[in-house]
Amino acid sequence: MQVFVPSNAIAGLGAAGDTVSLHTLLRIREEQPVIYGFPDEASLQLFTMLTGVSGVGPRLGLALLSALDATSLQLAVASGDAAALSAAPGVGRRTANRIILELRGKVDAIESDGVAAVSDGDSEVLAALSALGYSAAEAKAAVDAIPESDGLAVEEKIRLALQQFARL
Predict the structure, then answer these.
(1) pLDDT tens for residues 106-120?
(2) DSSP one-letter string for 61-85
(3) Number of Cα atoms under 13 Å in the Cβ half of residue 72
(4) What does the CA dihedral 122, 127, 131, 133 come to, rounded to 10 degrees?
(5) What is the pLDDT of residues 53-100, one digit of tens each?
(6) For residues 53 and 102, is the Cβ–Cβ distance under 8 A?
(7) Model pTM?
């Protein structure tokens, strides 16, 4: 039996012949079983959500999870970064915008690697940084580097995040 896995997860599976543990999803396609495997529960949940979006099938779902890891994909959707989603093969600007529109509020509920998704205030900061041209990963790293960001206004968080970029 063949298992379809995002390409960026293959390296972490181990050597040929090793025992592998995956979170799987079975789909019946043209009366044939097709198994999709993911390294963690968050990736499986994202895949399920992605394939629920109109015009996004399993092939595009795997392409998105191959181009972006689960956390980066969540951040791209939460911050409205259509350019990051469009970087996946087969995903155009229109499809990326549809994914953002349909999944923006839903991806916040998924936990990635045991860490809760970004808060509402942080998603606004991430969206602002993405609008300024920073990638979702760069924006997330800058927001994470802000010391004691609880209770700060969104504008102050953006200013502090931009200072993080200035230090690089």
Answers:
(1) 876 665 543 444 555
(2) HHHHHHHS-HHHHHHHHHHT-HHHH
(3) 18
(4) 60
(5) 999 999 999 999 999 888 888 888 888 889 989 989 999 999 999 999
(6) yes
(7) 0.64
